[in-house]
Amino acid sequence: GVSFDPERPILPVATAQAMFNTNALFRIMVETRGREALAPAQRQVEDLLRARRDGELDFTVITQDAVLGTFDRILGALTLGVAGIAAISLAVAGILVMNVMLVAVTQRTGEIGLLKALGARAGTIRAAFLAEAALLSVAGALAGFALGHVGAWGVRLAFPELPAWPPDWAVVAALATALGTGVLFGVLPARRAARLDPVQALSRR
Question: pTM for the full model?
Fold first, then answer.
């Protein structure tokens, strides 16, 4: 019989050869009952076709595993490329955060000296600057999160069939990475602020 699938009509081989006036086949599609039967079915197909073609191996058998393996390799290369770009972006962002915090330390030298003269501990000043670096990083991460959602929304509008939704773990990982980067690159400015001599800091006010 003939299958009336509107996208992929299926009919017997003899009927198709008579309809299109040909005695050759370009492609044969074989479906297995399960993934575990894929390898034995591939060997049986190869043996059967080779026997019918006088032992010649002038055909190619492609399985879904082979196709998926190719896609996995492509996606792996793309993932490594994106990871490299992300690492460079993190380094640049961290250096920018560190520069901003160093400028903040320079501009607040008098305030830091006054705090130390009033008895503020070095750890307190260090924690204050680290908190400022963390807040700066979180603000940047939230702005990037908003831009990412706008971009995903645009992709969903352009390609409704594509589920462009960021997973929850990726959102949490992005925010945590931004926070960790800001704190890491804020350590040097915070230590410099904590080590300022109160007398010299007040004299440079």
Answer: 0.59
Of 21, 19, 16, 20, give the one whose Cα is nearest residue 29.
Answer: 16
Cβ pair 104, 141 in contact under 8 A = no
Contact 183, 130 (CB under 8 A): yes
Summarised one tens digit per residue, pLDDT across range 60-99 is: 787 777 677 787 889 889 989 988 998 898 888 889 889 9
DSSP label at residue 10? B
Of the candidates 84, 83, 96, the one whose C-alpha atom is nearest the C-alpha of residue 181 is 96
* C-alpha separations of 73 from 78, 79, 101 in Å: 9, 10, 42
| CA pair distance 178, 138, nearest whole angstrom | 7
User: How many Å apart are CA 161 and CA 138, to the nearest integer?
Assistant: 32
Spacing of C-alpha 164 from chain mean position: 13
Question: Are residues 112 and 189 in contact, defined by beta-carbon separation less than 8 angstroms?
Answer: no
CA distance 162 to 156: 6
* Closest by Cα among 193, 198, 195, 200 to 104: 193
For residues 199 and 134, the answer to whether their CB atoms sit within 8 Å is no
Q: Rounded to an integer, what distance in angstroms lies between the CA atom of residue 43 and that of residue 66? A: 14
Determine the Cα–Cα distance for residues 163 and 52; give it in Å rounded to an integer: 45
Phi/psi of residue 10, nearest 5 degrees: -120, 130
Q: In whole angstroms, give the CA distance from residue 203 to residue 195.
A: 15
Residue 10, beta-bridge partner list: 3
